[in-house]
Amino acid sequence: MNNYLYKILRKTKILPQKLFVKLHYKHFTGKELNLKDPRDFNEKIQWLKVYFKPAILNKLVDKYDVREYVTEKAGKQYLNEVYGVYETVEAIDFAALPKRFVLKATHGYNMNIVVRDKSKLNKEWAKETVAIWLKVNHYNAGMEWAYKDIKPRIIAENFLEEKDKSTINDYKFFCFDGNPMFLTVDFDRGNNHCKFYYDTEWNKLPFAKKGYSEGENGMDKPPRFEEMVEIAKKLSADFPFVRVDLYNINGEIVFGEMTFYPADGKTEFDPESYNRTLGDYIKLPRIPAGKKMITSLSQHVQPLRKASI
Fold first, then answer.
1. CB-based contacts of 299: which residues, under 8 Å, 6+ apart?
2. Which pLDDT tens digit goes with each residue over 135-192?
3. Radius of gyration (Cα) for the chain, nearest Å?
4. CA dist., res. 176 & res. 270, Å (int)
């Protein structure tokens, strides 16, 4: 499909989700999507988009509403401080915010303004940017179901900073039925961005995200790493797959977000064989008889096949 036709189909929103997801996947990966018998990691993420729809997912991808779930499952001590929650641009009181803070959209991703010095912030630009965010529905991009019915809002959060670093490391735990099997660490994001892949014993793994630098020397295990693994277990226990993102700020663990469709289900791994190997970790639940999809966590009981690692 040529790029022009794809953009028209996405903009008009006339296709049912299942058909659009197939075209979307083929457009970006060049591969045919097999939803009847998915095997690769990305294929199974696309399957989860279409068929795994418990309402709680809407809450957990909302960057504000998820805080209640984190408090219940792991503890409020892992939450970053929130200065305000806003439904309109006009509601944001910049004068009341501290010198340093972060503005985030609660209803999607890649919508952040990092403010290191409020006196240097172009407030008109910030307001215009936030106004655009409030009109965004991320479901329309790749039909990631969990984002479909989230109320658009903005939060102002505490600015996180690691000692002697210009950016903070992001620890992303890939969890399968409550088991964090491996993690990727985004290191030095914004400068010499590298991604490191480790298992939960902090052994470097022999694969990487295609197109990204692995870095040569690796990195030291952060303090309280075992506690980070336990948090990921608690937050992921009820789901066939979820990525749990955490920060480690000078030994203090801070929750980041929960993601059910990493990179919109388009992440390619290198070597190629790991697309299938990592796909085997996801044990897809059966759709109940007489149903078209899974709509509650109680229906997530039996896998389609046993994963072979």
1. 54, 285, 287, 288, 291
2. 999 898 899 999 999 999 999 999 999 887 778 999 999 999 999 999 999 876 666 6
3. 20
4. 20
Q: Which two tokens stand for residue 48?
A: 């989860």
Backbone angles phi, psi at 131, to 5 degrees: -60, -40
The pLDDT confidence band at residue 12, using thresholds 50, 70 and 90, is low
Reply yes or no on whether the pLDDT at 244 is more than 90: yes
Gap between the Cα atoms of 116 and 144, Å rounded? 32
First-to-last C-alpha distance (Å) of the chain: 35
Q: Tokens representing 36?
A: 């009847």
For residue range 93-127, list pLDDT tens digits in order: 999 999 999 999 999 999 999 999 999 999 999 99
Q: Give CA–CA dist 261/248, Å, rounded.
A: 23
Spatial distance between the Cα atoms of 89 and 134, rounded to a whole number of angstroms: 9
What's the rounded Cα separation, in Å, for the pair 184 and 227? 16
Q: How far apart are CA 270 and CA 9, in angstroms?
A: 31
For 46-71, letters b (16+ CB in 10 Å) and e give bbbbbbbbbeebbbbbbbbbbbebbe
CA–CA distance, 256 with 70 (Å, rounded to integer): 10
Write the single-letter amino acid at 193.
H
DSSP, residue by residue, the chain: --HHHHHHHHHHT-S-HHHHHHHHHHHHHS----SSS--SHHHHHHHHHHHB--THHHHHTSTTTHHHHHHHHT-GGGSPPEEEEESSSTT--GGGS-SSEEEEETTSSS-EEEES-GGG--HHHHHHHHHHHTT--THHHH--GGGTTPPP-EEEEEPP--TT-SS--EEEEEEETTEEEEEEEEESTTSS-EEEEEETT-PBPS-EETTS---SS--PPPTTHHHHHHHHHHHHTT-S-EEEEEEEETTEEEEEEEESSGGGGTPPEESTTHHHHHHTT--PBPPPTT-SSB-SGGG---BSS----
